[in-house]
User: What shape does this take?
Amino acid sequence: MKGRKENMLNVRLDNDTNQKLTEYSEQHGSSKSAIVKEALAMYFNKEQSKQLPFALGSDLFGTAKSGKADLSATYKSKVKSKLREKHTH
Assistant: This one.
């Protein structure tokens, strides 16, 4: 953990939740903090997976990197042009 700063968070739990966390901690030999960290990581992964497919893949779609918004509309003419260039030599 050298160089990694951790933050502390205080959470109030009702008696039932605290008891369940204590029992789970003892049964699995994990600290309460480790269990809560893992639960939060699982929660955030679940929430991230709820994003719309477009949002998840937006960095992979054409205009994101090329800056050309007409690639899907002009692909045939681009292919024909490339083929003509290749076969005219």
Notes: The two ends are 61 Å apart (CA to CA). Helices lie at 15-28, 32-49, 53-57, 62-66, 75-87. The longest helix spans residues 32-49. The mean pLDDT is 83.
